[in-house]
Structure formats: C-alpha cells, structure tokens
C-alpha cells in the first residue's frame, strides 16, 4: 500500500482541491450566516403566521437533496441567461442551504433567552436594539455557537457535491487521481484524511465548548 | 421574460417513471436505516466498553462517518474497495455508504440517550435476575429508543436526501438516478429536476408525519 | 439463611465496610440503622451481588454470593430488593413492570405471571392501577409497585434500601404499612431504614451500623432501652 505512484505534485493537486472546498465553504457559510441571522431574528420577532412563507421556503431547502438544488439552480441560471460560473452558482446555493439551517439555530438561540430576562432589560429602559445587543445576543451566542460550528463542518462536507457542477474540489481531485493512478483505496484514504484533518479538530473544539458552557450553567 | 419555453407537460409524462424511482429511494433509505440502527446500537455499546480493543474500532467508525462527506463514504464503497478486488454495484455501494453514515450518527445519538437513562434502571433490572443482555434489551433499549426517537427521525430524512448521491456513482434506478436518466435523453433539466424536487419534498414530509403518528402510538407513557 | 462474615468493601481509597458480620434466619426481620452515607446501602447491594466485595464471604442458603462459579442471575431470583429511588420502568405499565421478570426470567406464561402480579398488586393496594404508567403514580404508589415487583418473583428474602427516604412525609405511612404487612406474614427481610418506630415495632433485631461495622445487634426492646455500645447511645440520643 505504501508502494504508491502518488507524487508530491499529485499531493499538491489534492491540497489545491482542498483549497477549493474551503473557498466554497467560506462563501457559503459567510453568506448563509448573514442570511440566517436576518431570517432568524425575523422569525423570533414576527408571528408564526406572518413568517409562514419564509418557514416554508427554508423548509424546502432542508427537505430537497442538495444535489437536486445545485442542478436546478444551474439549469435556472442558464435559462435566465445569467451566464454564472459554476463557482458562483455553487456558493449561492450552498449559502441559501446554510441559511435554512442557520435560521433555526438563531431562532432557537434567541428563544432560549428567558422572557423574564428580556423583560428585566426592557424594564431598565433599554431599547429593543440595546436589549438585542447587550442581553439577547451575548446569551444566545453561547447556545448557538456549538450548533453553528457543527453546521459549518456539515456544509464543508456537503460542499463535496459541487463536483457535480464541474468544480474540482477535494473529492473530485481525488477522483481524477484515482482514474489516472488506479489506486482508489490509497488515494481516497488520503482524501479522507484531509477531510478528517479539516473537520475533526474543530468538531472536538465545538464539543468541548458545549461541555464547558453546560457545566458553567 | 426568458428566452426559453418551459415544457412541463412533456416532463410530467415521465411522472410514473419518477414515482418508481421514488419507491427505490424509499426502499434504500428504509434498509439503510434498519441496518444503521442495528450497527448503531452495537457501536454505542462498544464505545462505552472499557476494553480499547472493542471501543477503538467503534470510535474510528463513528468519527470517520461524522468527519468525512457522505459522498466520500459512498465513493469508498464504490471505488475504494476496488483496490481489494471488491466491486460493489452502485446500488449496494450506495446502500453501504448510507448505512455506514447512519450508523455513525445514530451511534452518537444512542450514546447520548444511554447516558440520559439513570444507572439505577440497569441495577433494578439485574436485581430481578435478568442477565445483562436481557436487561439491556427489555429495560434499557426501549427507553433509549424513545429518547432518541426525534433525532432518529431526522436521520431518516437525511438518509432519503443522501440516496440522491447514488447518481454520482452511476445509480440509475432511484429517484435521482431516474431523473438524471430522463435528463440526459430530453435535456429538459429544469423541469424534470423541479418535479423530482417536489417528490423529494413530499417524501420527506410524509416521513416526518409518519414518524409523529408512530411516536404517538408507540410512546404512551 | 443469609450469613455475612467479615466483609470488607472499599470504593477506591474509601473503605465503607470494614469487617461486617451478620446472620439472618429464615422468617426474621432485621432493621439496620445508622448515619447517612455510612455504607448501609452498600451492604445490601453486596448481598445480591450487584457490588463486588474485597474480602470476607456472604452466603445465601449456603451459596457463596461472590464465588466465581455462582450464577448470580439464578441467585438473585430469590433475593428481592427494593430501592430508595423506586426504579420503576417508565416504559412499562404497572402490570407490565410486575410481570416482566416472572415472564422473561422465570419463563412463566403471560396468564400465570399476570395472576401473580394482580395478586401482589392487590396486596400493596394498587389493584386499580394495573394499566397506568408509573409516571402517573405518586412516589408512594411507585414504591409499593416496586415492592410488588420484587414479591412477584416469590423471593425467599427481600432487602429494603431506605425505601421511604425519597418519599414526601405524608406518603411514608402507606409504604411502611405495606412493609409491616409483609413482616407479619413471615417474610425474611433486611431493612436499611431511618424510621425508628418501624425498627422498634416490626423488627426481630435491630443492628446499628457505625464506621463500617455493625457495632451493636440486639432485639428492639433491649436495643432502644438499654443500648450497650456508647456510639449507639450517642446516635439514639441525637435522633430523639
């Protein structure tokens, strides 16, 4: 198994692929988090009935396979004559997909702040904005952060699907090497190890953060 | 608005084919869940074992399944095993990949549920003369499944979504596979995939609803 | 007959049993009293083999509990135990809680197990709660169910581990009444308890557990009116 044709430049090729995975993840998570914050605060603010259209749309993002979403979006931008590069399409779809989960995290975290605490803040004369900024946000952050880390890692793993639109991210670069070198198990194990290295330490950190905060409560 | 004529009627004619695919999708998801639950129970118990020989492989399984993409796991089954001369069909590779993933995630769910059951329950069962396996099966496991029911339902929805990944290894009988098959012959990509999306959505909702009804029947305490 | 001979038991550096000796005859009721956290409960879980011991022997009807060759599951069938925290199985109805072990451990038919269960549940005053889940019961009712569950195995001995300690004061009486009923029927019982009136009225002998040993064992009259050991006197004067 260690007798491999994999060269250093092949390894660099994989690392470049990992760079693409990280780039897609970065844009998706940044966009998705901003949208998620917006939708989440909105969800916590307005009534369920008013939020129904939003709830429905976000639920669709969570109930339709990402692969199907990517193909649909790509077909749509072609029809609309937008001429978007696959990278942009992928980032937008993944960002919307991320926002659907992020909204739930944000709403859940805001709901986790006790009403009495917020009443107390407002009773002290804090405005809605001040209450959000100084009371709700810091408290909600502790609830949301572990789940948000989990979401980010989830998106990183799901981003492998953008290979279907032709992006050469980590898994796709692995596949290219497999075709060329005919050593599927070894190369895929290298690919898996890279994914693992990008995911596992952060997952552990998230787990520890959650544990420590739970113990402090 | 667009320089394109939508051909919904032509796409809708393929609905019977798509629904056949949906059945295969549901079938794979259900099988992968059934096997995943069995493996997950074993993994959850094994991870708590004091013997490293038992707990280490279980931990490896769980961590790999949770820290690599599901698609990677399917690739491993389809391409990776080729190194050992094992060539799984897309169907089996997909089933194996999703089962592996389900088992890893559910193992963590079950482990959390086991921790939530007071240790005194096991002591009480053992005190009645039950051997440990019987005590686990009759007293601990039913409580574990109840605590883990909602996350298990979510995993089932995940399993359905994951079946769509089969198309990347050449699967052509499930909903995504059938959709892609029709697509490459008709080039009505948007219409055909939009219909597939609706079907996936409806399956996911039906599963969630079904699970709720099941929970109401199963857990009366 | 239960014979406890020179039993030592420690949890890590903490020695809880330091040479305990006690024998309990068939039909006898022995109450064990003493300060909290002194290891009284540990003694009970050693008797049915839930806890291993460091040295000494415990014999139940001549069978050594902690011998490697002993089939503990077999042995536990004749030693019932009722815990402080009830330990009702929440996913089973009251009837199912009581029939589970007779059916699955003793291999009884459903009908036979239910007949016994109904008899025992009637005995403890829960005949009207058969199809209720434990979550709907009060603490006292749950504890009485736990007693019926232990009795349904027709044990030769029943161990009671501070069975009233987790109960609201107004519910203690109903459980103690059940225990008295059993004692009067000739059941062999070891009761770790804080209820002095129970120890005095129902026991054949009372044992005082202090610093890992049974410092004094005597019939209740003698135990309460003329305690021999200075620590017993001290303990009794504190609770009065």
Kindly describe this structure:
The complex is a heterotrimer of chains A (217), B (221) and C (240). Chain A has 217 residues and is an all-alpha fold. Chain A contains 8 helices and no strands. Chain A has a domain at 19-168: MetI-like fold (Orthogonal Bundle). In chain A, helix 4 packs across helix 6 (128-158). Chain A is flat, with a radius of gyration of 21 Å. The N and C termini of chain A lie far apart (50 Å). The model of chain A has no long low-confidence stretch (mean pLDDT 90). Chain B is globular. By secondary structure, chain B is mainly α. Chain B has one domain: MetI-like (MetI-like fold). In chain B, helix 2 runs antiparallel to helix 3, helix 5 runs antiparallel to helix 8 (149-163) and helix 9 packs antiparallel against helix 10. In chain C, the strands form 2 sheets. In chain C, strands 6-7-8-3-9-10 form a 6-stranded mixed β-sheet, sandwiched between helices. In chain C, strand 9 (205-210) and strand 10 form a beta hairpin. The two termini of chain C are 33 Å apart. The mean pLDDT of chain C is 92. The chains are: A mainly alpha (217), B mainly alpha (221), C alpha/beta (240). The A-B interface holds A 60, 63-69, 71-72, 75-76, 79-81, 153, 157-158, 160-161, 163-164, 171, 174-175, 178, 183-186, 188-189, 191-192, 195-196, 199-200, 203 and B 2-4, 63-64, 66-72, 75-76, 79-84, 157, 161-165, 167-168, 176, 179, 189-190, 193-194, 196-197, 200-201, 204-205.
User: How far apart lie the N and C ends of chain C?
Assistant: 33 Å
Element order, helices and strands of chain C? EEEHEEHEHHHEHEHEEHH
Give the uncertain stretches of chain C in residue-range form: none
CATH topology of chain C: Rossmann fold
Provide a count of the helices of chain C: 9
Q: Write down the secondary-structure element order of chain B.
A: HHHHHHHHHH
**Second-tier CATH architecture of chain C:** 3-Layer(aba) Sandwich
Assembly category: heterotrimer
Number of beta-strand segments of chain B: 0
> How would you name the CATH homologous superfamily of chain B?
MetI-like
CATH architecture of chain B: Orthogonal Bundle
């Amino acid at each position: 198994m260690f007798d491999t044709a994999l060269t250093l430049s092949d390894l660099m090729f994989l690392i470049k692929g990992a760079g693409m995975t990280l780039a897609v993840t970065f844009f998706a998570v940044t966009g998705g988090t901003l949208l998620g914050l917006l939708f989440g605060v909105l969800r916590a603010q307005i009534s369920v009935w008013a939020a129904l259209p939003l709830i429905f749309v976000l639920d669709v993002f969570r109930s339709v396979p990402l692969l199907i979403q990517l193909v649909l979006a790509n077909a749509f931008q072609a029809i609309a004559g937008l001429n978007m590069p696959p990278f942009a399409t992928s980032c937008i779809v993944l960002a919307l997909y991320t926002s659907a989960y992020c909204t739930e995290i944000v709403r859940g975290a805001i709901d986790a702040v006790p009403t009495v605490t917020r009443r107390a803040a407002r009773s002290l004369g804090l405005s809605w904005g001040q209450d959000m900024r100084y009371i709700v946000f810091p408290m909600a952050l502790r609830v949301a952060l572990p789940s948000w880390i989990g979401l980010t890692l989830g998106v990183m793993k799901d981003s492998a699907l953008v290979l279907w639109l032709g992006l050469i991210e980590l898994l796709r670069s692995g596949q290219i090497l497999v075709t060329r070198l005919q050593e599927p198990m070894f190369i895929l194990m290298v690919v898996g190890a890279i994914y693992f290295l990008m995911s596992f330490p952060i997952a552990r950190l998230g787990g520890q953060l959650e544990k420590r905060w739970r113990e402090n409560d | 608005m667009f320089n394109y004529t939508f051909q919904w009627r032509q796409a809708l004619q393929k609905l019977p084919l798509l629904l056949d695919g949906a059945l295969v999708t549901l079938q794979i998801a259900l099988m992968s869940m059934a096997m995943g639950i069995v493996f997950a129970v074993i993994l959850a118990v094994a991870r708590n074992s004091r013997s490293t020989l038992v707990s280490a492989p279980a931990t490896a399984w769980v961590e790999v399944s949770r820290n690599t993409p599901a698609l990677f796991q399917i690739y491993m089954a389809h391409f990776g095993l080729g190194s050992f001369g094992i060539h799984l069909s897309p169907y089996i590779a997909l089933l194996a990949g999703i089962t592996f993933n389900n088992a890893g995630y559910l193992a963590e769910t079950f482990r959390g549920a086991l921790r939530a059951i007071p240790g005194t329950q096991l002591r009480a069962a053992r005190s009645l003369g039950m051997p440990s396996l019987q005590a686990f099966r009759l007293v601990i496991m039913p409580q574990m499944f109840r605590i883990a029911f909602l996350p298990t339902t979510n995993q089932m929805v995940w399993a359905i979504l994951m079946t769509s990944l089969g198309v990347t290894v050449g699967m052509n009988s499930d909903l995504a596979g059938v959709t892609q098959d029709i697509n490459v012959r008709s080039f009505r990509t948007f219409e055909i995939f939009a219909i597939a999306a609706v079907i996936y959505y409806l399956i996911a909702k039906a599963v969630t609803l079904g699970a709720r009804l099941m929970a109401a029947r199963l857990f009366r305490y | 007959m239960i014979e406890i001979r020179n039993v030592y038991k420690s949890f890590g550096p903490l020695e809880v049993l330091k040479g305990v000796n006690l024998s309990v005859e068939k039909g006898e009721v022995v109450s064990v009293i003493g300060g909290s956290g002194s290891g009284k409960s540990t003694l009970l879980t050693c008797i049915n083999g839930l806890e291993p011991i460091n040295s000494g022997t415990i014999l139940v009807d001549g069978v050594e509990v902690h011998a490697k060759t002993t089939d503990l599951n077999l042995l536990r069938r004749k030693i019932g135990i009722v815990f402080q925290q009830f330990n009702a199985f929440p996913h089973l109805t009251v009837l199912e809680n009581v029939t589970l072990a007779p059916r699955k451990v003793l291999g009884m038919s459903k009908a036979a197990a239910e007949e016994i269960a109904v008899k025992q549940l009637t005995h403890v005053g829960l005949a009207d709660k058969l199809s209720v889940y434990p979550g709907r019961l009060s603490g006292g009712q749950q504890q009485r169910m736990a007693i019926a569950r232990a009795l349904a195995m027709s044990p030769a001995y029943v161990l009671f581990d501070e069975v009233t300690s987790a109960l609201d004061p107004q519910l203690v009486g109903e459980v103690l009444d059940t225990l008295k009923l059993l004692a009067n029927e000739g059941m062999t019982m070891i009761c770790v308890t804080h209820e002095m009136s129970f120890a005095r009225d129902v026991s054949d002998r009372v044992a005082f557990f202090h610093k890992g040993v049974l410092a004094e064992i005597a019939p209740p009259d003698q135990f309460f009116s003329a305690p021999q050991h200075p620590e017993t006197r001290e303990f009794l004067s504190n609770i009065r």
